[in-house]
Design brief:
This protein has one domain: 30s Ribosomal Protein S19, Chain A. Helix content is about 0%, strand content about 20%. The protein has no helices and 2 strands.
Length: about 60
């Protein structure tokens, strides 16, 4: 388990699963040879996905 997201991924983590602490939850990530040299925090998404609220259609429209 990794608590510090500023640590650099080295060859020790190659082809291994690591659990990264995000502050409120723990995220499971798998490191490959392409992840070596980057920081661990780059592979954890910390933002919530945003979606626009769905508008309700008015059913009872007045007839003219």
């Amino acid at each position: 388990m990794i608590f510090c997201r500023s640590t650099v991924v080295t060859t020790i983590f190659k082809n291994r699963v690591a659990y990264i602490y995000k502050g409120d939850e723990i995220v499971r990530t798998f490191f490959t040879k392409y992840n070596i040299g980057f920081k661990v925090g780059e592979f954890t998404v910390t933002r919530k996905p945003f979606s626009f609220p769905i508008k309700k259609n008015k059913k009872n429209k007045k007839k003219r």
